[in-house]
Amino acid sequence: MEKMNNLGVVRLPPGFRFHPTDEELVVQYLRRKVYALPLPASIIPDLDVCKSDPWDLPGESGQERYFFSTREAKYPNGNRSNRATLSGYWKATGKDKPILLSKLVVGMKKTLVFYRGKPPHGSRTDWIMHEYRLATSQPLPLKPNPAQAKGDWVLCRIFLKKRGNANAVVSRKEEEEEEEEEVICDQNQDCRMINSAITRSGKPVF
């Protein structure tokens, strides 16, 4: 029998796992959240993921964790989200991946890596975040009124990458390909522009 945890979301019984695809996360969960439509299940809590370090986030140890979060905080001189936490910061790596439904782009997935400390001398960790956002244009059968959108929601999947996994989400090749100029702020809003070349490796199922 389903139980509720202290965040007010469904806690699955032993033996059951939440393993949604990228498409399901965007179409069935994020899109419905943004337009205040009923969700398939109350399985993903609302949480500002940057209020806590990744190891302090609620959820089962060793399992992927899913959260609805907002991108309200921006850097003073741009449109990038402020992803600083108490002990470090999330940094984007690689190129955003389009999420397709019947060959149509319905969302984008950004991969981020958590670094301890302050930029640009942070220490890379094995914590990974996949941040899903809706595409600006969504030609889907169900067409809600854009004026009904409720906030700048994203859906975050956070997990600790296992070393030695050949299928790890963030590959060395992905990281070495990306070179971008980005602004990073620490928790005290100490902002700086850095030209970063990343060269280090770094629905319920019944």
CATH fold annotation of the domain at 22-163: Metal Binding Protein, Guanine Nucleotide Exchange Factor, Chain A
**Which range does the strand content fall in?**
35-45%
Helical content (DSSP H or I, runs of 4+): under 10%
Alpha-beta classification = mainly beta
Please give the alpha-carbon distance between the first and last residues: 12 Å
- Poorly predicted regions are 166-206
- Write out the CATH superfamily name of the domain at 22-163: NAC domain
Order of helices and strands: EEEHEEEEEHEEE
Count of extended strands: 11
CATH domain class of the domain at 22-163: Mainly Beta
CATH architectural designation of the domain at 22-163? Beta Complex
Domain NAC: 12-161
Organism: Opuntia streptacantha (Prickly pear cactus)
Protein name: NAC domain-containing protein
GO molecular function: DNA binding
